[in-house]
Amino acid sequence: MNAEELLQRYAAGERDFTGVKLPRVRLLDVNLRRAIFREADLSNASLDWTNLSYADLSYANLRGAHLGEAGLGGANLEGADLSGVVCGQTSFKNANLSHANLRRAILTETYFKNANLSHADLRGASYFSINSCKGATFNETIMPDGSIRSDGI
To answer: pLDDT tens digits, the chain, 153 residues: what are they?
Structure first.
């Protein structure tokens, strides 16, 4: 499957792309709201400006992906590998990031309002701001400096 085929299938009403392998795919400024990418390989993908709100990306490989201004509000990213992702003005509002790997992620102006960051690993993440986490859940979350946080903000 390639990007064009995925977009055609999505336009035709298909939403379940579980296990799809699309490393380095370019899906810029497209609507993939409520798509299911469970256990998909989207490593090093370019997903800037893409609407992935309420998408299921649980256990997906997004290592090194570009998510600039992407909308991931309400998305399920439980157990996802987001290590080394590049975010800028990206919204994870109300997203489930429990057990997600965000090591060495670049999180410039990234918003985690009301997000679940329980057991997430943020070690080495840059530009992470606790001020962008109003209402977020922290339960044994590994913070960028390696400290463990367990509380809500």
So the answer is: 999 999 999 999 999 999 999 999 999 999 999 999 999 999 999 999 999 999 999 999 999 999 999 999 999 999 999 999 999 999 999 999 999 999 999 999 999 999 999 999 999 999 999 899 999 999 999 999 999 999 855
Q: Which of 96, 103, 56 is nearest to 82 (CA)?
A: 103
CA distances in angstroms from 146 to 114, 129, 149, listed in the order given: 22, 15, 10
